[in-house]
Amino acid sequence: MTVSRIRKRDESLLFLKQLIKNPKSLGAVVPSSPMLADFICSHVPILDGHLVVEIGAGTGRFTQALLRVGVKPENLAVLELDPDMCNFLKQNFPHINVIEGNASDLHTLLPEAWIGKVGTIISGIPMVNLSIEDQSGIISSSFEVLNDVGSFLQFTYGPISPLPTKKLGLKKKRLGHIFLNFPPATVWRYWKQPMIQGIHKQERKTEKFDKIREFVGFKPRLLAREEND
Ligand SMILES: C[S@@+](CC[C@H](N)C(=O)[O-])C[C@H]1O[C@@H](n2cnc3c(N)ncnc32)[C@H](O)[C@@H]1O
Fold first, then answer.
1. Tell me: the pLDDT tens digits for 201-223?
2. How many domains does one find in the chain?
3. Is residue 149 assigned to a domain?
């Protein structure tokens, strides 16, 4: 499939209309540059069955780059809040699942088979313009659809992380800075410690204590109660 060419004049008009209508939600004066789009999409693993979700797709600059780097249309779902932007995406990317809706409802909007199976989420949503409640809604919905080792990619124009990682329980890494964008942008990766590791750690700790208890002849309270029942 050839990557659909976004019609430049229509794109500029739509962006301008959205800038006047809802500047806070748009969070930019022009669409992202191809350099930023290529950089952020170069961090998506191109593996068989690796599902990718783009949120806040706007006019589809990242969508185009995702197809360019080799993500298969059937492995890509694109979400956008604004109905006009959404129609534009549907017209320009007819082979992709384009969904209209809020990223905080991602877990209810994606096909059921995708829940917990997504490998990467790419976000174009201006997170710095959102309240902590809204950020938290988007992040919890995103990590509900991501698999255990999945990650969340986000760009920002500011020098610091656009998401408060401690409050949201995330790990972060700055992936790079793109000067050839207006304004220059930084790309971040966020992820959660895989649950399984936490469980293993806890199990190892319990096993260690059980061995000590066994050695000193002490029965764990729960076990002693079970034996008495
Ligand atoms: C800066 S534009 C990014 C567009 C494109 N990704 C790019 O980089 O050129 C941000 C987009 O996020 C969308 N958006 C904002 N909040 C959203 C939300 N809660 N859920 C889904 N999309 C949202 C806006 O409608 C807008 O199209």
1. 444 554 555 455 455 554 444 44
2. 2
3. yes
> Does some domain include residue 1?
no
CA of 158 to the centre of ligand 1 (A): 17
Contact 55, 123 (CB under 8 A): yes
Tell whether omega for the bond before 83 is within 30 degrees of 0, i.e. cis. Answer: no
End-to-end CA distance of the chain: 66
Residue 28 Cα to ligand 1 middle (Å): 9
| Two tokens, residue 36 | 């930023």
- Nearest-CA neighbor of 32 among 139, 164, 154, 191? 154
Nearest residue (CA) to ligand 1, atom 8: 32
pLDDT in tens, 138-147: 999 999 999 9
Helices 83-92 and 8-21, axial angle in degrees (round to 10) = 170
- 85 and 168 within one domain: yes
Kindly report whether the global pTM for this prediction surpasses the value 0.90.
no
* Residue 207 belongs to domain spanning: 195-229
Q: 85: CA distance to ligand 1 center in Å?
A: 9
Residue 169 lies in a domain: yes
Which of 100-104, 126-130, 135-139, 203-207 is predicted with the least confidence, judged by mean pLDDT?
203-207
The CB density around residue 42, as the number of other CB atoms within 10 Å, is: 14
Same domain as 201, residue 144: no
